[in-house]
Amino acid sequence: MLPPRAYTFIGLNGLRALSVIALLLVFASNIVTIVHDVQAVDRFQAGKAANATDEAIINADYIVGSTVPNQPAGVFWAVLNRLLIIFQVIVLLLSEFGWPSGFFSRFFPILGRDFGLGALGIIQCLLGAAILSHHVDDFSLVAAFFLFAIGCLNMLAGLIFRNSAKIKRSLTEWKDHAKNSLPTHVAGIDIRPVASAAPSFVSSAFKSEKGTGEEKTGLGFGLAGERAAGLKGYLISRPLESLPRYAPNRTAAA
């Protein structure tokens, strides 16, 4: 049986996978909508130039078959709206993958690692509502509904897990926790690796020996050493010649 932390990890990553799918669907649907809007505007302009367009169609609030309002600069604002939605979707996709983390921590902290999923869910709901507020095709309708539903789930997860949601679903944090959870003692014996301690001990011993060698310089056992000892008040006497105890006596041998 898996620990509770594993179920949390799987659930949050499953929600992240659904969020990525919803964002990709919205990204694709907005590109399709831009293409359809441009084609509808071209047909409208061609019919208007040929004076073949009905008066009711010319005075309509929206260009037929598009989400473009029939007003001055309506095409510009409609296309700009779709481009801004695509840009926001790209930013949300990058935040879901957590790359680049330093960029989000500095410029978009609410989408960074230190914040939960509540802000992400709010932005997703806003994008879904912005798309659903217009008459769109079936593909865009389904994608926007799906994104809005995932945004609600992200807000719920943000309320439950708060700022630790992204940490609980992080793969690197899971690996680090697995390393820290390894046993360090078996039957009272320390099994932690000690290979890293040897280089530091050797380097410290080498440095201490090197330091003592640089600080102290000997004069040896020659005349220079004897003179230095005499200046300091030490008397050096020549040792008496003697034989070891186990050596035979010369007089007896003679």
Automatic annotation (TrEMBL):
Keywords attached to this entry: Membrane, Transmembrane, Transmembrane helix
Pfam family of the protein (one): DUF7598
Transmembrane segments: 12-35, 75-94, 115-133, 139-161
Keyword Transcription listed: no
Keyword Disulfide bond belongs to the record: no
Domain DUF7598 residues, every copy: 73-134
InterPro entries named in the record: DUF7598
Protein name: DUF7598 domain-containing protein
Species of provenance: Roridomyces roridus
